[in-house]
Inverse folding.
């Protein structure tokens, strides 16, 4: 491993949400550590929350240029916003076990809208609490250069879609979803899936593929 992205939860996340002050402090620490350690490069990301069917996210646009990478995922623990957003998107996806094809289609379009509107580099733990249509999602990601995360904690939600992702030509990125320091860089479950589906190493950032982010 030569590059490590610090990717904390975003502004509207309960309990652990980002602030501008936290990001500034984190940036200084990353730059300081990079000067001390030439073998491992630290970069700064944030895991934005997708908020509604319009694909809006909770990272202010003026911060895009200061981040090295922008990640995006669905999380149900977000602070209260527009009532329609919570009922139609957050609550249905995060707090029910709805098996609704129309909801799946709307979720897919929400992620596509987000990728088209914002300089998203990574889609995190796809399929976790938000069902999506694999083909249109991965086709959009491949065309825009958005990486699909191989998430150690939630790899089982992506696994049924990996063959479609490969057919669509997406690029992947390793994500430990650590939450604890001792879990950083642990990819035991991901490694099994990579071998099972013979995902080419040169398609995986963190193995044989260099990170190429979208222009902020």
């Amino acid at each position: 491993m030569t590059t490590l992205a610090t990717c904390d939860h975003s502004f509207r996340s309960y309990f652990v949400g980002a602030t501008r002050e936290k990001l500034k402090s984190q940036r200084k620490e990353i730059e300081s550590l990079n000067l001390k350690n030439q073998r491992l490069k630290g970069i700064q990301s944030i895991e934005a929350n997708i908020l509604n069917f319009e694909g809006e996210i909770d990272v202010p646009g003026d911060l895009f240029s200061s981040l090295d990478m922008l990640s995006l995922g669905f999380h149900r623990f977000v602070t209260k916003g527009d009532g329609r957003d919570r009922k139609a998107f957050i609550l249905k996806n995060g707090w029910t076990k709805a098996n609704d094809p129309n909801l799946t289609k709307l979720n897919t379009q929400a992620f596509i809208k987000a990728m088209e509107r914002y300089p998203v580099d990574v889609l995190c733990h796809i399929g976790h609490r938000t069902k999506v249509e694999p083909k249109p999602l991965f086709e959009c990601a491949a065309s825009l250069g958005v990486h699909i995360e191989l998430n150690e904690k939630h790899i089982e939600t992506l696994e049924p879609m990996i063959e479609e992702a490969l057919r669509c030509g997406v690029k992947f990125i390793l994500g430990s979803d650590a939450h604890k320091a001792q879990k950083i860089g642990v990819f035991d479950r991901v490694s099994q899936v990579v071998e099972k589906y013979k995902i080419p190493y040169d398609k995986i950032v963190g193995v044989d593929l260099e990170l190429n982010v979208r222009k902020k």
